[in-house]
Every structure is written in C-alpha cells, then in structure tokens.
## 1
Amino acid sequence: MVSNVLGNDVKANVSLEPLLDFWELKVADKCEHMAGMFNHFKARISEIPELTGDIEDVGVLNEHYDILRPLMTAVFPPATFEKEILGALTPCTFEPFFVSPEFQRIFIDN
C-alpha cells in the first residue's frame, strides 16, 4: 500500500491476470500457434507462485523476463519495441516493470 495525495492508502500492485485474460479471450482463440504459446506461458506462470495474484515486488518480473516479454507483445508491438519509448509502470507509484530499450536509456540509465 502507498498513500495518495489525500493520505489514503492505495493498492499499487501489479497482476498478470488481466494480461492473461486478454490473451485467453482475444488472442489464443484466434490462432492455434498463439494458443499454444499462451498455454505454455500460463502453465509456467502457474508453477511460479510469485507471479500469480497480486505482485507487490515488481522486481520479481525482471527475474522472469523470458515469460513476460512474449506476453507483453500484446501490449507493445515487437516491430517497434526496440525503437519506441515504451514502458509499463505500476499504478500510483509509477515504478517501471517492463520497458523498451529506449525507455531504459532515456529514463532509467541517465
């Protein structure tokens, strides 16, 4: 929990559930190859307790970048990922947990 400007506690966790729901409902049923990829990553995520439910420590996502990167292609197009300034940040605290190389270079490395 973090406090907002009014001093109220605000939940600022990340969850992969909405991303997995999107894949299941909008991507996997349209292409058997994408369905296979989705099922593979969903099974892997289910074996890693820290990736299920609310993720309070977004650092854990860096440890599982090999899972997150393909799933995030639904959000950030691979064709422009290397050149665009793109980032996924936690709500309220704006902590980046998935960023493009350009985002990394401009906002984090400097």
## 2
Amino acid sequence: MGCFDMRPSLAGLVFSILVASIVAGCAPVGANYARPEMRSPSEFRFVQEPAQAQSLADLPWWEVFDDVALQTLVWEAVSNNLDVRVAAARVEEARARAGIAKSFLYPQVDGTASYGLRVS
C-alpha cells in the first residue's frame, strides 16, 4: 500500500494509444515505394450508349413517377392557374382563414362599458 496507485487509468490508456497512432501515421513510406499501376476495364457493366442514355432532367417531373392521378392533378392545376395574382390572393385567403382558425387557441378578452346620467 504505497502512495502511488499502479493501476492504469483510462485517460492514460487513451493518451498512449493516441500518441502511438500519431507517431505511426507520420512514419515515412520508404525510398523504394512505387505506386501500383491501376488498370481500368475496357467496358463497364450497365453502361448505355450515349444515344440511348436519357437523363431524368430531360423528362417532365410528373412523367417520371408514371402516375395517372398525379398527371391529372398537374394538368388541372396548370389549366386552373390562369393568373399569378389570383393564386397569390388565394394563398393570402388561406393564410387568413388559418389565422382565424388558430385564434381560438389564444386567450380572449371581452369588455363592456356603459355610461348613465341620473338627474335628481
């Protein structure tokens, strides 16, 4: 029972692993190191010819999903959106209606006042 505790602490163990990693990472590769030659294959799998390749950016986004309901909704939206100002007014109306619907969540204050004159 001496005054020094000889058990290794977790901090000391982590510190020694960190120092060993740094020293090993800075070691030189060697004077006779030669970079290995990388050979690329002549053909890759699943590659289409440039004439056959078609990008998703070339297609209208609603046709990418191949959904009849989505295409119907898009065409209905395009046909009913005749004016940008009308659409902006509809957005403002929806925001106002949402504000009215949310107003019941807040406390409400009521008050009355009256004035009377009594002549005797």
